[in-house]
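Sorry, I am new here, but would you mind making up a protein's amino acid sequence and the tokens describing how it folds?
***
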Amino acid sequence: MPPLLPYLSPTIPTPKFLNMPSFPLTQQRLTLMQLADSFFPSGSFTLSHGMEAMVQRQHITSAPEVEEFLRLLLHNRVGSSDLVALVHAYRASVAQDLTEVYRADRCLFAQTVIQETREAQCKTGQALLMVAQSVWVDAQLEDLQTAIEAEQTPGCHPVIFAVVGRAGELDEGDVLLAYLHNFVTGLVGAAIRLGVLGHLRAQQLLHNLSSDLLTIATQAQITPLSEMWSCTPAIDIAQMSHRQLQARQFVN
């Protein structure tokens, strides 16, 4: 085996392009990419949010129908409910007010009327918290774990994501976009696995949805916690009927 290349000394001058003021390199950027990446093991890749049932029943058979499904879910549930709880939990976490974090968590749990969705929110939230504790040393993450084990708060995924984002020193806008990107890419990946979307069309779809993501993120920032809402009846029915499928790739 040939000898390994010597370790490059940190005293070697940094290339000029890395010092350009318009391209600052920060740890927060890497954290943002880490949290937004579907590689991050929060368990969300196991969810189809009712898409699998709709595909099996041929309610979704094409890329345009996948896009319509995603837009309905984003505007009528994720943006109007999940993101609102995430914003309020993030702000409470920044203020070191865990009582308000727990209030946002309980409000989201109560707002999520479908049992399958509630269970998925809590399972992926607790998986995210477990992974986050192995990456970031943060007192709030430990307190959250204790509160969940004591059943003081349910530990819904968007709320956990908010506290993890704060622990990673991300600002509010970055946490919102990281959550949305992770959510959308997870569902686009599910559509590929279900055979109703190809890889090229998937990238086009992600591009098409970018303006929707910015719109719902902006709206969530100005929505009071008391005004959360959701209205996705067809998707809710699909999620409730998912466990009746004879063959399943996803947990909901």
